[in-house]
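Exercise 7. Given the encoded structure of a 174-residue chain, write a plausible sequence.
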């Protein structure tokens, strides 16, 4: 159910040269969502995951500045239909999963992103990378969960937060 932080990227698609003002559209055959993101981020494959809870993701990818600073995306099947009407009942369960992985008590807040109900956590401290922090957004499309993990270190935090904001404000079901 949760892929957290400390993921390493394999080869990144493309090689620099993207204009910082350019924007790309995320569209991936394994994800029924799309969104806009800055052209400075490169799409890459997740090669290894240091910590996770729950089952293996059905799909995963990343939009990255580098190995420690990226927007990691994962897709999972969940055992129940999550809707705007019952999302509040799932918050304590998601809180517990995030707590287990971070070692810190957390309290998520319900959100709606692109018409999907979700649970959001800001400023979640990570064990790795050093001084790493994530914004975690769990979005539910019936019995499918999408995790958007905007992970950053202090050096790239502003860029990742801006990119994450753009992803979340433009996300829609495709």
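Solution.
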């Amino acid at each position: 159910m949760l892929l957290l932080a400390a993921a390493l990227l394999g080869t990144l698609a493309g090689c620099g040269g993207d204009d910082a003002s350019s924007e790309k559209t995320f569209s991936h055959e394994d994800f029924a969502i799309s969104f806009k993101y800055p052209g400075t981020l490169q799409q890459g494959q997740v090669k290894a995951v240091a910590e996770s809870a729950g089952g293996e993701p059905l799909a995963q990818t990343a939009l990255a500045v580098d190995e420690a600073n990226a927007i990691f995306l994962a897709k999972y099947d969940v055992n129940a239909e999550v809707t705007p009407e019952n999302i509040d009942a799932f918050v304590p369960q998601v809180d517990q999963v995030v707590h287990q992985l971070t070692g810190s008590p957390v309290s998520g807040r319900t959100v709606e992103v692109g018409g999907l109900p979700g649970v959001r956590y800001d400023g979640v401290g990570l064990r790795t990378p050093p001084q790493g922090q994530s914004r975690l957004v769990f979005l539910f499309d019936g019995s499918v969960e999408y995790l958007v993990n905007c992970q950053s270190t202090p050096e790239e935090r502003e860029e990742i937060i801006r990119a994450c904001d753009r992803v979340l404000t433009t996300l829609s079901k495709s």
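Remark. The chain has two helices and ten strands. Students should compare their own answers with the one above.
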